[in-house]
Specification:
By secondary structure, this protein is mainly alpha-helical. The protein is 53% helix and 4% strand. It has 2 domains: 70 residues, no CATH class; 120 residues, no CATH class. It has a 3-stranded antiparallel β-sheet. It comes from Nitrosospira multiformis (strain ATCC 25196 / NCIMB 11849 / C 71).
């Protein structure tokens, strides 16, 4: 039997007793179950006797091959490489964000937090504080971390997203999220909603 017909035959639904009753006005059925079995066998025999032209023969592709073929179609033949202009534009955007007034130089943050610079360095190293870095310009820390609740949110995200870079975390925390009605996590977080807001950030980052 051609593969197409074999596939159809193997996936035909079984004949039910309700379907057998459709013939009751035409023929006398003494045993409905036996009649259903004979009807199924008859359908199988008729399918086996059909010969399809080769042009109509369809190969049934395994699921793994189908997924691999679709995945391959999504991959570009040539990997995208940013141009010098793209790199310069990206760096300009980083510098613009880095120099926002709410991003404080480390000495200023330490003074406002009433901590030594050494302690701030330790907190950054231990992922208790988020620090941004752009080349030799030193580190800057978002001032929202001076608020205990927002600092707690930041620390939870830092501790859970160990493989995510600081800039990605910064944007996830400071930019509006659809799941938070278009407001940023650090804007909406409260003492009672820290875990819920952190979950919203994790959803954006793909962290589970």
């Amino acid at each position: 039997m051609p593969k197409t017909l074999e596939f159809i035959a193997n996936h035909l639904p079984r004949v039910t007793l309700d379907e057998v009753r459709r013939f009751s006005n035409t023929v006398e059925i003494r045993n409905a179950q036996a009649f259903a079995a004979e009807l199924e066998a008859f359908m199988q025999e008729r399918l086996e006797s059909i010969e399809l032209p080769s042009s109509m023969e369809i190969e049934v592709e395994p699921v793994e091959q189908t997924l691999a073929r679709k995945a391959a179609a999504l991959r570009a033949d040539i990997s995208w490489v940013p141009s010098q202009t793209d790199i310069q534009r990206g760096r300009a955007l980083l510098l613009e964000a880095f120099e926002q007034s709410h991003n404080l130089p480390l000495p200023d943050f330490a003074r406002l937090a009433n901590k030594s610079r050494q302690q701030i360095y330790k907190d950054i190293e231990a992922r208790r504080l988020l620090a941004l870095n752009v080349g030799p310009r030193g580190q800057r820390l978002p001032d929202w971390q001076l608020d205990p609740v927002k600092q707690q949110l930041t620390q939870i995200v830092l501790q859970a997203a160990l493989d995510v870079d600081a800039w990605t975390l910064y944007r996830a925390l400071s930019e509006p999220l659809e799941g938070l009605a278009g407001r940023s996590p650090v804007e909406v977080v409260t003492a009672d909603s820290v875990n819920a807001v952190a979950k919203a950030v994790f959803n954006v980052l793909g962290v589970h």
